[in-house]
Amino acid sequence: MRPVHIALAVLVTALWGVNFVVIEMGLDHFPPLLFCALRFLVAALPAIFLVGPPRVAWRWILGVGLALGVAKFGLLFIGMHEGMPAGLSSLVLQIQAVFTALFAAVVLGERPGRRRLLGMAVALAGIAVAAVDEGTSGPLIGFVLVVAAAAFWGVSNVLTRKAAPPDALNFMVWVSLVPVLPLLGLSLMFEGARPDLDALSRLDWAGVGAIVYVAWVTTVFGFGVWGFLLRTYDASTVAPFSLLVPVFGMSSAALVLGEGISAPRWLAAALLVGGVALTSLPRLRLRRVWRGARRRPDAPEVGARSDALGAGARPCAPGVDPRSDVPGAGARPGAPV
Q1: How far apart are CA 297 and CA 316, in angstroms?
Q2: Which ranges constitute the DSSP H helices of 65-204?
Q3: Per the count of CB atoms within 10 A, which of 26, 233, 234, 290 is most buried?
């Protein structure tokens, strides 16, 4: 990747990591379901008038909108409202890679190899350590809700792969329109009209800033840049940068919110990130690397493609690379957050 594009990838993951801190702050101003509805409303409007009509069938937009917007983000916001720390939330959500691989095996017939199965086991061990740590230091219900949010993220990843949107930003903007009314309805049912009206009547610049950040910075800008990178490079090149999200999430939560990181949480982070890396990243083709090391510089490998051809051989949909070993790659709405 070009240095400027590496910088963009790191910038987006940093914005997605800090997003968990902003969500924590926003929950001080709004009930969780109302905050989630406002996030998608501001992300969708006026962007839908700028990105053009949808480029995939409406059934995929509705499916991803409900799984990602209503279920995943609704559960995440409620889980954090129930006491799940921002930094730990950014980490636990990465278990979505395991759920994506499992659902892809069932729905898409993708058989996980031994390395991917090992990665799932390691990541699940990290979840177990984090659950024990959180169960002894905070409410376990928030932890369970965030894990459920990760499961629905896996569902949305598989649906996005089936949809194969040609334009990630266009797709995400239209997907953002779907959850608004369901989330508003759920907020009125479970949070009540009075708390919602009170939150809106007390709206201040901090609340507006939280909505703008989670809507425009992380959704519109973040997914716009991420989609551009996935159109420019293979998914297996871009996807590994998403592992930086919990790094920025836990670091920013410690710096801004004063969240401590216990020894079990460090262990959980190491297991989760390592397991997700084994589950998500492409296999290292050692034989090809060894052949390349022994090959003379002036003796090109038989059958090797030129850089120009390799750069031009893009997958038919952003992030969906038929040669890649990445489950749910390109279905990164992973991106994040």
Answers
A1: 32
A2: 74-81, 86-92, 96-107, 114-137, 140-163, 168-177, 180-190, 193-201
A3: 26
Largest Cα span, the chain: 74
CA–CA distance, 163 with 55 (Å, rounded to integer): 10
Amino acid in the structure at residue 51: V
pLDDT above 70 covers what percent of the chain?
A: 81
Query: Taking Cα atoms as reference points, which of 249, 295, 293 lies closest to residue 272?
Result: 249
Residue ranges of the chain whose pLDDT lies below 50: 284-290, 293, 296, 299-334
What is the distance between the alpha carbons of residues 307 and 304, in angstroms, rounded to a whole number? 9
pTM of the model: 0.81
What is the full DSSP assignment across 52-95?
-S-SS-HHHHHHHIIIIIIIIIHHHHHHHHTT--HHHHHHHGGG
